[in-house]
Amino acid sequence: MNTNRRDFIKKTTLASAGVAMSGLAMGMSARSYGRIIGANDRLNIGIIGLGRRLGAYFEPIAKNDNNVQLLYLCDVMKSQREKAAKRFAEHIDYTPNLENDIRKVIEDPDVDILINATPDHWHTPGTIMALKGGKHVYVEKPCSHNMLENELIVEVQKKYGKFVQVGTQQRSSPHTIEIVNEIHNGVIGTAYEAIAFYTNNRGECPVQKKVSVREGMDWELFQGPAPRREYTEETWDYNWHWYGWDYGTAESGNNGTHEMDVARWALQVDFPNRVDVEAEKRHFLNDGWEMYDTMLATFRFAGDKVIQWDGKSRNGYSTYGYDRGTIIYGSEGSVFVNRSLYILYDRNGKEIRRSESTSNEAGTALGGGGDTSTVHVENLCEAIRGNGSLRAPIEESTKSHSMVHYSNVAYRIGEGFDIDDQTGKMLSKKAMKLWGREYENGWEPEV
Questions:
Q1: CA-to-CA distance for 379 and 387, rounded, in angstroms?
Q2: b/e string for 319-348 if b means 16 or more Cβ within 10 A?
Q3: Could you point out which of 73, 163, 365, 445 has its C-alpha 20 to 30 Å from the C-alpha of 344?
Q4: Does residue 206 carry a pLDDT above 70?
């Protein structure tokens, strides 16, 4: 928000109060007062992708104190738009525009923020389009589909100077911030290793079947930057995560990115210098799932620091006692942290302290959302207004998401490889063939 706009708000505070009193006399609603008083500081939002993450945006948009307005609900599926409008009607007393095409949302100069909750293959291209259109962006994880997109999204953000917040919302979790700060200040001595884990009992995945495009679906726009192919019934709604590499980034990008981000944050490391993986499809061998469902990835960093990603998508045994979280080992103790608590242990394994959060942030439930997501969206809005800095800025987040891509590349080429920990480049000719991906002609993201 520019200085002139903030100054204008300060100068018109008394005048606004007078308007409010007049409004009271006329019987205007509280929401109407807010629209008049806060008009010069209001942020207008458009959401693209109205699937399972939609619930994460109800509260930050509906809260009067946040002074935001929802202008657009955009999705390539007509039924998703209509369903989203009905769900939002329970939280707001006005009607946003329903739109099919992201490009029309971006073309509207009144939109300040684009929330990008599309499938993974749209995250970087959609964000780059929005940045070029003058929008700030909240992009869900992973912020990129591959390492090339990591580079592009950072470069475009720097060029256009807009804020990009990545949806790794645990960065805004008060208890996580507290314990990570303590780790940085030596509460467990020298932190040297972290295990990031995720456990779920996902079931059998339908085999894709070629059928006519579902009514109300814009299959062309769903594919967007991805190479064109025939429509399959099970692809558009969530299962795109598991159907090859055109759309998704497997469980590493879907969920592992959260805990790997916390691990890297706690250890204060950037790019690794080596990745090795053991990964395979272990369950329902004849179903439609096309990539690994079990992975153990090991990342080695300078200073003899190590992060392991232990992902089990379809085996519900809680190896570490919880369904997801991060364990950080130090020379003088250890920490376990997840979305609802942290536990501090001494070197003998004795519990020293625990902090249980009142957070209602979802764990492994589809869609998620909760108060930490709310705070994370609010953090973007306040940063735009000049009140503080981003918790998950794009330049920092791409370092965590590089671990997603390194692990997936190592799985796909069947071997580990060394990495230049200054530039992030993969020191393997086989690996570098997967630095980027194939795009549909005319849809290539560009700086």
A1: 9
A2: eeebbbbbbbbbeebbbbbbbbbbbbbeee
A3: 365
A4: yes
Average pLDDT over residues 139-161: 98
pLDDT, one tens digit per residue, over 356-367 is 987 777 665 655
The 10 Å CB-count burial string (b at 16+, else e) for 119-155 is bbbbbbbbbbbbbbbebbbbbbbbbbbbbbbbbbbbe
> How sure is the predictor about 3, in pLDDT bands with cuts at 50, 70 and 90?
very low
Both tokens of 435, joined, read: 């630095």
Give all domains of the chain, ordered by start, each with its CATH number: 3-170 (3.40.50.720), 173-364+395-432 (3.30.360.10)
* Neighbour-count burial for 9-48, b at 16+ CB within 10 Å, e otherwise: beeeeeebeeebeebeeeeeeeeebbbebbeeebbbbbbb
Mean pLDDT, the chain, integer: 92
Through-space distance between the first and last CA atoms of the chain, rounded to whole angstroms:
24
Q: Which amino acid is at 277?
A: V
